[in-house]
Amino acid sequence: MKFxxxxxxxxxxxxxxxxxxxxxVTFSVIAFKAVNVYLNVDGVxxxxxxxxxxxxxxxxxxxxxxxxxxxxxxIADNNQEEFERSLKRLTxxxxxxxxxxxxxxxxIPKFGFPTKKRWLKNGERSSIFDESYxxxxxxxxxxxxxxxSGNSMVLKxxxxxxxxxxxxxxxxxxxxxxxxxxKFSFKLxxxxxxxxxxxxxxxxTTETDPSLMHQLLYSDIxxxxxxxxxxxxxxxVYDSFGNGKGLYILQEDTTSEDFMISHFLGYxxxxxxxxxxxxxxxxxxxxxxxxxYSEHAKPSNLYNEFKIVRDYKDINALxxxxxxxxxxxxLDVNDLKQLSDFNRKWFDIPIFLKSLx
Length: 357
What we know:
Blueprint (H helix, E strand, L loop, with lengths): L1 H19 L1 E9 L6 E5 L2 E4 L1 E4 L2 E12 L3 E7 L2 E2 L4 E3 L9 E2 L37 E5 L4 H5 L3 E9 L4 E12 L7 E5 L10 E5 L9 H11 L7 E8 L4 E9 L4 H8 L17 E4 L13 H4 L3 E5 L6 H13 L6 H10 L3 H8 L1
């Protein structure tokens, strides 16, 4: 009996040691135009599985791996990566890695917020705008017709890879912009909840900014001075055949209801259908637009340089703009009480001044 108990205790001890000193690890890699994809760990190859025939994502879970740092490479159709990847101790899964790209996660320095009282809503960030990861986007535009013509259409499908999630959409509306450039900008409009509540995404061309720094720095500076501004990250865009269409800056659309809700009501409100009832009209002003006021003039004549993106249900957008212009016209800037009332009721003066800085 003692021998049996000792043997049982020894077996339990070995089992405990195996649990402590081993782990199951899931590896995931995006590989285009590949038939067979393998994971190579110290010369041992594991065949990876494509979980969905329409999505070029290959995964495998390897049992009982060491808890120490793991060195590995991916192989796609006999083409092995030239560099070696590593997985940290005790980590049980990789992010969605891209075949042939060595760096998956990279923390980018930020300007930060210089004041104690910050614009808190700017601190909320959907995982689609995680600055440490470059998303991969696949657009099925039916034989490349959209990228050739730039015509607005309904895309067959869009697949978005974030670092730890995949989002697939069917019948996505797309509109183009800046067609004078070889690589034009475009906007995607999703149905239902979109990507974590974000239903509109803008892909900005890099034709006017080959360094890819202008948009990112500009947005970072605005947020550092506590201005509500579009979140953005670089992203890779491919067609459905795995052909690269370029590197874009993926942005929030500042004229969308999503932007207004996430920045002024809070990111969590994107999930509530009634949140749109709490925002007013959205107008897009051109370079010539201004807050003109004339008592007897028609708002449609005064503000024809404004484009109405969303008209508030209780009051016409241009009538509301006319009322704002009237309040601005009658404002005595030397009267502190009037300034305070105007700032509270009509216009956020501190944010406006920061935008001029």
